[in-house]
Amino acid sequence: MKTRSQLEIKRQRGDFIGSFAVFGYRKDPENRHRLLVDEYAAGVVRDMFKWKLEGISAGDIADRLTAAGIPTPMDYKRSQGMRYSTSFRLKEESVWDAGMVLRILKNPVYIGVLEQGRVTTPSYRVKRLVVKPREEWAVVENCHEPVIDRYDFESVQKVLALDTRTSVSGKAVELFSGMVYCGECGGAMIRKTVPTAKKKYVYYVCAAHKNEKRCFSHSMRVETLDEIVLDALRRYIQDVINLSDLLELTDTAQLQQAGMRKLQGRLEKKREEIDRNQALLRSLYESLADGVIDRDEYQDLKKTYSRRRAEAEEQAEAIQEEMSREMGNFSEGRGWMEQFRKHQNIDALDRTIIVSLIERILIFRDRRVEIVYRWHDEFHWQMDLLRQAQGTLPGREAV
């Protein structure tokens, strides 16, 4: 038990306790519980994330690495003189596969986060490994130097969660794959190829109508969608840059005060909601005693009001935590703007730009296209703060 508690203390303070460093890092020779960047392996990891953002599948990334003669994590450890062995080793030299690639792409260690203590044993006598619930893991941020930018890491996780298909060439997914939805029914829109005597035309059509004849029969050519999205994205990028520049010119104290006013307004509303549900709970017993409601109604209403009060208390606590962060570092929450700024001179769309800056694209039957950008809530929040700080809007909670 003593050894277990000592290991848990080390995990909670962010000490690396693994036998071998993760691919992309090496152990600090002066502190074996600290990770340092291994530039060669880190370069390979960066290429993997870059390729994934470009739409390359995990299997094709593995093939690229194998063809280029890049050693797998296992072989790389052995080449560095580490006595690394595994029961999975079947060949003298292993080859990359999609599973290896996905494990790396999903590992938050590359943004400086250590997730440890994911498995345990029931006791020191029983050696059977048991996976612990995620809330019991030891997760510590900023433990070591990141290899991957946090925004790129989040974009890759988004890509991995999308339902995407590889293009006919097998090299990359289609530009808008997994991103286009029907504005009428909310379902996915899928590509449909219509061949003619001279050429093939590719359209996005509503899957619900195509497969089940639900929704409406509406479509849009891929080339038309490309033009619309490129034009809209250029204008939105400029809007973000303009907002960023104005925020830089505005007194930070004024912006911070405006932010605190908005948060304080939200907090007061949540406190009113807590008090309201508390009052309803107090009145329930009187209603039961007076015969206004029966015992079953009393129990149902008590459960409902208690749940609403608990949810409001949890939300109020989250707002208070946000207020503390706001006081700590006001400008930290604007890093997302740089993701747009670095694409300000785009003249064509590519997969990396699409998944990095856009959440989803909606196509309506009147051929209207609505684009939901990433960090759209943050954009409106910052815009409202700017207006309040400049005195163009009263300091009230936005609806």
Write up this protein.
This protein has 399 residues and is of the alpha+beta class. α9 packs antiparallel against α10. A hairpin with a 4-residue loop joins β8 and β9. The termini are far apart. The protein has a domain of 159 residues: Hect, E3 ligase catalytic domain fold. The chain is 49% helix and 13% strand. Strands 7-11-12 form a 3-stranded mixed sheet. A 3-stranded antiparallel sheet has the order 8-9-10. The radius of gyration is 27 Å and the shape is globular. The longest helix has 38 residues.
Short overview:
By secondary structure, the protein is of the alpha+beta class. Strand 11 and strand 12 form a beta hairpin. Helix 2 crosses helix 6 and helix 9 packs across helix 13.
